[in-house]
């Protein structure tokens, strides 16, 4: 519910209307750079065994240059009211979509990495039938760029959560739900720990209950141990592309490529999406996410030059699994087998757990209807709607 004290403790100029209006010159420059791409040769080996295949990316870049319509996507995003405000020295961009019901509960959504508020494009309208929806851009992402010169204070998940708590207070919301995916799933429970008197419940998409080491497997039946040991091995750093240790150590080096080449930026984002969804062996499986959404996300990274700054979750040691908390109830969508729930219940008040087929790590982009239904079900079950 919207507090009657809205804006009384802050000057209304603290919150500024925002509208996406990318200069045409920036779009022309993007297309010119795409046309001038110097393509590498294909390396020996199976199509995906050395990384994103040249043929796959060429086809996607051709579509980006010749058929993709940024202006249409910009118009789609601009149908939602957007604002910026300054909190703790950081400009925060956010979407604020009010429900037609003034007494509807509030819900703050936190997007994933390497993603943006584009992740929620197909959630905002349906969710606003039930909630007042607030969707901020994480600091260093998209239209929440880091200031120049850089603020040398490290960002952390806790600092983001404090920023979100201030944002909700500034908007006048006394009680609200929280939802997050990936990086957002780290922010959501942290916000509950910092502001339990304000948070109704925490809803996240997976991550919780995943064993990160031998200690998490203790006390499990043998059949459960066997079914999840591969997860513990994966999260311990074995296998995969090795992107996380590099981002934690040398993100500035990669940022030069992302800032200078839109194709380098796209290749990196595509590789993360593919890796999170189960890296293909010889051929790419059917794309679970519409390619216009993939390219809108890549365009947003490129046009705002935030590829490098978005990697702070790794170099600030903020990446990982969601923290345990029992301050408020937790609901999980696409949470995986029941053994994950049993592990999660050791440190969390799990009251809702869905184990639907997981079409993509970026669930809001791949299965928005399913996610909207699950969010509504969780909060309705708390009796707060």
UniProtKB/TrEMBL annotation:
Keyword Methyltransferase among UniProt keywords: no
GO molecular function annotation: hydrolase activity
InterPro entries per record: AB_hydrolase_fold, Epoxide_hydro_N, Epoxide_hydrolase
Pfam families: EHN
Domain Epoxide hydrolase N-terminal: residue ranges: 15-120
UniProt keyword Hydrolase present: yes
Domain of life: Bacteria
Keywords: Aromatic hydrocarbons catabolism, Hydrolase
SUPFAM superfamilies on file: alpha/beta-Hydrolases
Family recorded in the similarity comment: Belongs to the peptidase S33 family.
Record-given protein name: Epoxide hydrolase
